Amino acid sequence: MNQHHESTGPVDEQQITLRGPAELADALPYLMGFHPNDSVVMVALHGGRGRFGGRLRLGIPQSPQEWASVAEQLAECLIKGSERRGERPDAIVIFLCQDPAQGESGSQTMERLRPLAQRLRMACGALDVPVLEALCIAGGRYWSYCCPDKRCCPAEGNQMALPGTSVMAAAAAYAGIQVRGTLREMEARLEPLNTEAAADQQRALDSAGADLLPKILDEAGRKDVARETLGLARRLLKRLREAPAAAPSASDINDDRVISNDEAAAVILGLQDRETRDKAAEWMEGPEADSALRLWRALSRRCVAPYEEHAAAPLTLAGWVSWSTGDEPGARVALGLALRVDPGYTFAQLLHEACNQGLDPETLRRCLRGERNVRTGRRPRPDRTRPRTVRPTATRRRKTSSGSTRPEAVVARRRSGQVSPSRRGSRSGR
Predict the structure, then answer these.
(1) Helices 312-324 & 362-376, crossing angle to 10 degrees?
(2) Per-residue pLDDT tens for 400-416?
(3) How far is Cα 9 from Cα 185, in angstroms, rounded to an integer?
């Protein structure tokens, strides 16, 4: 078993050495902030000590015919994206995470995914970056695709460490890094309702669409719709903020109860207008941020069939507020779902790339504050108490030049080629 993998936390705080596949497999949830079900995860390593750098995650393509092209795309995005930030990776670690299918053992899952691991290793090698380790995690066990020694990496795999018992778990607890369940559990908080209430919500969306469409087609009417949408959203924020506190397990249910179907439909459809969405994005910090995140999550759950694509706007807003308040794992999940329902949603694409690159959201926060001050005639106040973004790893900051103050333009200036979370083609952005 190879023992050459080392990882550091923030370079000026704490260093942790990870030796071999077992400790790498145990560290993955702490690197991502959640357990990445059904995912390819690639992590760049830098320097002789293998410091963790950029990372990306993508759902495992269902069709093996896609594996070759996806492997090339992922390798290029991770390596060239790191180069644009000034640090070409010295090596890469790959994780393939998937629960066994019905009637399938973990070993069979590992063997089924072996060609994908090989494609990824070849794609990285073609760009002159070696893969130091490629692991499969399935059914509570892990396998190494790189280690040929069956004494430490047997065919039946090795059992994962018990949660909370490793050095990485202790270090993460000390640093305040939390693992908030599985990717599937995090996505469930944002996915459309599948209960009997979905039919009532669909009828409300149908009715709101028939009422709003003639207004949206008229310039004056469109402005009225925008004003009414933001006014209603503000009232819902206030209602959520004043709602009685609930246990975490019941918080989403309580939030759904205080928002009627008609109110949800009106705000969902109103947010399809880009300018309205951008103004709503200003609720990204301070006491507004928590209730805004709850509102965008609730509205995402109300985008029932056949209105799933309308969820791109509230999902993107949920991702933006999460990123703005320091919750990068939550941001990646929400933005990934936004791009799953609408791969061409430009604002989600740009935010997802910026978040993955570890950029500072303060640039966009400053832009949104400036637009709000111009619109309301307020004088900007000295920014002494802006929220700090908590990061589990050190990142390099860059200054941006002045220019357009549109939120999408600001994020676009910060782009540098991180992988888009969707494999499908991009449509014209919104």
Answers:
(1) 110
(2) 333 445 566 555 544 43
(3) 26
